């Protein structure tokens, strides 16, 4: 059985429009530190992250606390946007209405799902993994597991960072996803 913890990056500094290099704010750095005690009773086999600065720096304290390195993988990056969007909400809404929609230079929600699933399927069949991720990517996995719920999940995490989802993938069973830790 694979247990995967998808961790949304901490609060980003949105004054930096470079999606790859956008750092965390001081609040985002604290959110990264706040993850460590949540995982104190979890044995992690590996920590992975999107190569985007905000995702990898979010899981760095967690990896360090478990004596692990953060392993970067391009398949874990956020959805490719067609550029800086003045009306991000309208674009996201259109993508949720048509999971294959994108503008030139962008990427569809289905494409993000396929990248992430490719990564998950390459993990060992048994183990526990933490992944520094992004909101739309996590929402695409919610949509994959619970069709029709990805957009609602995406809406609920807007303005919330350091959010964790637990994904259980057991052979012969449908994947299960739940917010974590459960309260």
Automatic annotation (TrEMBL):
<protein>
    <recommendedName>
        <fullName>Phosphoglycerate mutase</fullName>
    </recommendedName>
</protein>
<dbReference type="InterPro" id="IPR029033">
    <property type="entry name" value="His_PPase_superfam"/>
</dbReference>
<dbReference type="GO" id="GO:0016791">
    <property type="term" value="F:phosphatase activity"/>
</dbReference>
<dbReference type="Pfam" id="PF00300">
    <property type="entry name" value="His_Phos_1"/>
</dbReference>
<dbReference type="InterPro" id="IPR050275">
    <property type="entry name" value="PGM_Phosphatase"/>
</dbReference>
<dbReference type="InterPro" id="IPR013078">
    <property type="entry name" value="His_Pase_superF_clade-1"/>
</dbReference>
């Amino acid at each position: 059985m694979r247990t995967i913890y998808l961790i949304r990056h901490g609060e980003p500094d949105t004054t930096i429009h470079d999606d790859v290099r956008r750092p965390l704010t001081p609040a985002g750095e604290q959110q990264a530190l706040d993850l460590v005690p949540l995982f104190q009773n979890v044995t992690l086999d590996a920590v992975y992250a999107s190569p985007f600065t905000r995702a990898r720096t979010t899981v760095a304290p967690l990896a360090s606390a478990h004596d692990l390195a953060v392993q970067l993988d391009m398949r874990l990056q956020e959805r490719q946007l067609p550029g800086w969007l003045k009306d991000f909400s309208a674009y996201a809404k259109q993508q949720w209405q048509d999971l294959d929609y994108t503008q030139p230079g962008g990427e569809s929600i289905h494409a993000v799902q396929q990248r992430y699933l490719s990564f998950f399927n390459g993990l060992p069949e048994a183990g526990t993994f933490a992944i520094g991720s992004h909101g739309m990517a996590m929402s695409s996995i919610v949509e994959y597991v619970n069709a029709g719920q990805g957009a609602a999940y995406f809406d609920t995490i807007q303005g919330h960072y350091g959010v964790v989802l637990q994904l259980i993938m057991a052979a012969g069973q449908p994947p299960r996803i739940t917010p974590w830790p459960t309260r």
